[in-house]
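Notebook entry, structure prediction.
Reason for the run: the old model in the group folder had no record of what sequence produced it. Starting over properly, with the input documented here first.
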Amino acid sequence: MDNLNYGVIGNCRSAALVSDTGSVDWCCLPTFDSQSIFARILDAKNGGEFSIEPVGEYQIRQHYMPKTNILVTHFTNGMDTFEVRDFMPRYRMGTDDVHCPPEVIRYFRHISGRPEVVLNFNPKLNYGDGVTFTRLMPGGLKSVMRNGEYESLYLYTDLDARRILHREPIVLDDNAFVMISYYQKITMPTLEKIDLEFEKTRVYWMDWLARTTAPPASRRHIERSALVLKLLTYEKTGAVLAAVTTSLPETLGGVRNWDYRYCWIRDASMIVSILVRLNHRDMARRFLEFVLDVIPYKHEKIQIMYSIDGHKTLTERTLDWLSGYMDSRPVRVGNAAYKQKQNDIYGVLMDVIYQDLLNYTNIIDTYEELWSVVRTLVRHVRNNWQRPDRGIWEFRNDMKHFVFSKVLCWVAIDRGVKIARLLGKQADADDWAKLRDKIKNEVLSRGWNAELGCFTQYYGSDCLDASNLLMEHYGFITADDPRYVATVRKTYQELCVDGLMYRYKNHDGFGEPTSSFTVCTLWMIKSLNRIGEKRQAQEMFERLMGHANHVGLFSEDIDFKTKRLLGNFPQGYSHLAIIDAAMELYNGECDAVL
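New structure, fully documented this time:
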């Protein structure tokens, strides 16, 4: 599979990746972070898939149904034509309840002729660890684990289930469906019911996007990314995932393979800020309720990440029986980074809280609980800002005094001061303002490298880091400050290759990075625009958008030479930055959010 040519479907409970030939190659049920039922993307032989194999030569193309997360794969050989509409049901039931069952629906729409297909239903439960046995049952098939922990999966269909089981050709001469369900159905699904599920889901996504207030000039760049970000939210808790996959490598054959099916406080806060700007203010309410749930006590240590259910222990292990994406081992589940100390998380979270209070959205019944969190965050910064940490890039070797971490500590205190003033807590505001100024003065003196003439990655370093581009975006420094202009230009000179950005180039414990980090390219685009290089910024943006896959999706990384997508997918960090850059480049918005 070249260039991660997958579309993603989902319903804010789980998600699946469907290849450009119509094969479901990744899906975890019942939730995003459950064990996989299909994982061909991580092992072509042992991962499991649900592929569609037309008999004969067919032309295949794929696209999203406009303004939805419904994926359409179109098959034709001239006379025989059909399409598969893949989706996971999601729609409102009454005012508050949302229907989002752990189901994948494959709706076969007959268009012409009598196409023949083989449906290769090949689930491998529990990440393919053990033997999955599939047998006939009334209305379809049931798959179970033959060894290890019990797990099961159900397939319902109005096609001949026996022919599916034995992978025999099936003639499509009318519309049909296949439903993959984690739960056994009480009432058998019918084509009429599937039609209704499809229409309700289509209307849901179209309605959600219609309430997105992206200005017309940037809307063409924003809509798909907005739909991706919504899909990455978890209905049950309000958590936001970084991506729906695990272990897709930053470099082919490398070991930078991480599980991204978790909620990073920093990434989620940035995503929520973007969605609030797009008029989805309920996202802030849900996310901050999640934060209040995971930080219940004043003494509680704030982790950089949590499970989507709010669990705090994310033990990392390797699945050695899987060969990895294009033989890139190891395959990891869990993420040991949850133990890391990253001081930047306080600033992005405080910024979300401030943005909400500033807009008077009344996300919670009273502000007392949130004010307690604000005071807790300030206390954490006061106690920790002078200590080294792992930084935004989660270095696994040394802790250092990273400049960006210090800047985000400043952001935390700056927003704390502003929140205190909004709530009439002037004494707190005055006290915190002194700390804010102290942090800023230290960063300006110790983070600046006079010999290089720019801000560097950490105190005393001569390494450049793209995260320092955000100094101006968060209001730490102005765009016309000569120090910021010099940092942007020097960072572009050192880290930009063929219009794509490195995060940094120095050794990080796993070697030196070899691929471009997409969000950093977008940070550079925004920074260039801010310092007056508007034409260069727009050209760089349009060039980057040309590297999207066939349905407009981005992963975490891009290979500098081949321009293939790499890393976990689809990546929330990349898509939120696309929205942010597009809104500024094409609408002149200059909110200091990201």
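Summary: The two ends are 33 Å apart (CA to CA).
The old model has been moved to the deprecated folder.
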